[in-house]
Amino acid sequence: EAQLVESGGGLVQAGGSLRLSCAASGFTFDMFALAWFRQAPGKELEGVASRSNIDSHTQYADSVKGRFTISSDNAKRTVYLEMNDLKSEDTAVYYCAAVSPPAFGPGALSSNVYDYWGQGTQVTVSS
């Protein structure tokens, strides 16, 4: 059974940093794309960053480019989201998701192409 477990969320001041982790199990990690999505209160689910474990291609939402970095440790079956220069508008529940084969282009940040989802981790940025 596929499982994704997020960790690393918390409360941080604006301008600070956090690193989220997503531990994967139950599927062939190397053949998947992993992505991070977020949902703020009263807002739609938003694709933040994605990374293909096949060719290491990454994609980012414009709102996080230059501040967030997605990476993967295939040996640990874990994908990370390094978040720097956090802003109050980054406050949301962050979800990890996985799909195979990896989606490309706009689909890479589209929630409806992803098959597996974690339970989410809360990130709160205080101003």
Terminus-to-terminus distance: 40 Å
- Tertiary shape: globular
Percent range of helical residues: under 10%
Task: Report the mean per-residue pLDDT as an integer.
Answer: 96
Number of strands: 11
What summary fits the major beta sheet?
Answer: 7 strands, mixed
Q: What percentage of amino acids are in beta strands?
A: over 45%
Order of helices and strands: EEEEEEEEEEE
Low-confidence stretches: none
Rg is 13 Å
Structural class, from helix and strand content? mainly beta
Count of individual helical segments? 0
Q: Helices, strands, pairings?
A:
Elements: E1 3-7, E2 10-13, E3 18-25, E4 33-39, E5 46-52, E6 58-60, E7 68-73, E8 78-83, E9 92-99, E10 116-117, E11 121-126
Parallel strand pairs: 2-11
Antiparallel strand pairs: 1-3, 3-8, 4-5, 4-9, 5-6, 7-8, 9-10, 9-11
Write up what this structure looks like.
With 127 residues, the protein is mainly beta. Helices cover 0% and strands 49% of the residues. The protein has strands at 3-7, 10-13, 18-25, 33-39, 46-52, 58-60, 68-73, 78-83, 92-99, 116-117, 121-126. Strands 2, 4, 5, 6, 9, 10 and 11 form a 7-stranded mixed beta sheet that branches. The N and C termini lie far apart (40 Å).
